[in-house]
Amino acid sequence: MKVENTALAGVVLITPPRFGDHRGFFSESYSRAKLLQAGIGVEFVQDNHSLSRERGTVRGLHFQAPPHAQDKLVRCGRGALFDVAVDIRKGSPTWGQWVGYELSFENGRQLLVPAGFAHGFMTLEPDTEIIYKCSDYYAPETEGALLWSDPDIGIGWPLDAITPVISDKDAAAPGMADFDSPFTWQG
Fold first, then answer.
1. pLDDT tens-digit profile of 104-138?
2. How far apart (Å, rounded) are the C-alpha atoms in residues 3 and 130?
3. Other CB atoms within 10 Å distance of the CB of residue 76
4. Active site residues per annotation
5. Helix, strand or coil for residue 4?
6. In angstroms, what CA-CA distances link 26 with 13, 23, 29, 32, 132?
7. Can you spell out the DSSP letters for 122-186?
8. H-helix or E-strand containing 13?
9. What does pTM read for this prediction?
């Protein structure tokens, strides 16, 4: 398992090995023991799976606030997506900064998005599936969102020349200027 730190402390890019032959491949997509060896001790309690039919679908930027904040381990089951994490921890030296990576069925990469970061993605192919593990259960009373296109964040979405497919709820999310984060950087 290849584990790479990103420019945002705590956000980690993980690439499990694939073993292939003429039939296809085998990959151990999750191993608690191997993540523990890499210093990642998150205990996951829920798996989520969603399908986005159209290329250019944007979901996010989402988070759950304490006491139900979630770490997420995100991967692409089919197709390809651009996955983003935004630091929303008050007082953090990287407050409002983002990282983004292409996750695809082909590359098998995963992104660990810890609590204190908003998460979102844009599909790069039709019929893209995202599969992710969460460290806490869904708690709708704690869910929050930031505007995916907020210029104060300035995410470089790869398909910026197309009109994204987005929910009304995500389109109406606030920007960073109007955001009082429930997270605080622990230094």
1. 999 999 999 999 999 999 999 999 999 999 999 99
2. 20
3. 27
4. 62, 132
5. strand
6. 20, 10, 9, 18, 19
7. EESSSSEEEEEEESS---GGGEEE--TT-TTT----TTTTSPPB--HHHHT---GGG---SEE--
8. strand 12-15
9. 0.95
